[in-house]
Amino acid sequence: MAAPPPPDPQFVLRGTQSAVHALHFCGGAQGQGHPLLLSGSLSGLVHIWSLQTRRAVATLDGHEGQCVTWLQTLPQGHQLLSQGRDLKLCLWDLAEGRNAVVDSVRLESIGFCRGSVLARGHQHWTLAVPGRGSDEILEMPSKTSVCTLKPEADAKPGMPMCLELWQADSSPRPLLLAGYEDGSVALWDVSERKVCSRIACHTEPVMALDFDSQKARGVSGSAEKALAVWSLDEQQALQALRTQELTNPGIADVKIRPDRKILATAGWDHRIRVFHWWTMKPLAVLAFHSATVHCVAFATDGLMAAGSRDQRISVWSLYPRT
């Protein structure tokens, strides 16, 4: 029996007028009740899309024409963080139809590294952002610097390329996973300001990583032709588990679906690849886009979106959650 052909997208969003570099699903902000999709573009704009009408309901312009690389909503739902290549991280208030920048953080690093947020109750959150060869941890919204995480003197991992703040259920201490220019992934204890563990995952810079805190397993992608899967043991030591070979080099983004059943990668080869998260069995290769796919995102209901240099956002319903 031949395998069935890969599906087409459910629908396609057009109108960003420049390459799409960031995507994020959020719940019904702006009093709409339905999930919204946020996209960040090369031209510095953030579009807020209604998935019902499949049109942009608002456009945010806060990055002076510089590429938007990361989007994240805060637990309250009506506050949005956007990070741009203008060395600025903006905090937006989207409540009741507003779209004003209410605060901003100046960044040190001009690289491609996206920030990461850890919610600490409804009003407070911890923010990790890239610095010059280090990671900055800030307590928000006060912008108080908690610490700067600088690699050990003998370690020369290069610039941080991707960050993931998280917290184990059994501990109140925040932990940070960071992927570096030399292809290594490190686990930091933020409170102790020290590296608990570091492993060499790739021979090229780590472009993206995601972590499943329930299974204590993570996955990372780089400029090479492989995904690395690794785990975290009880002693907070990172262990390499396996390498998943790919057909073509270059992974721009990797995301595990919230139900931890599948994961998707955004490829330089214009492809979205979907894998079973536990076995890493390849499930689908989606060849819809005509240029580099820069980002993928999952909604809590399992819907997936991908953004590309071809200025299109494809929205997919794959392996529906049971």
From TrEMBL:
Sequence ranges of the WD repeats: 199-240, 286-322
TM segment ranges: none
Signal peptide: none
Designated name of the protein: G protein subunit beta 1 like
InterPro entries reported in the protein's UniProt record: WD40/YVTN_repeat-like_dom_sf, WD40_repeat_dom_sf, WD40_rpt
Source lineage: Eukaryota, Metazoa, Chordata, Craniata, Vertebrata
Entry-linked PROSITE patterns: WD_REPEATS_2, WD_REPEATS_REGION
Keywords: Repeat, WD repeat
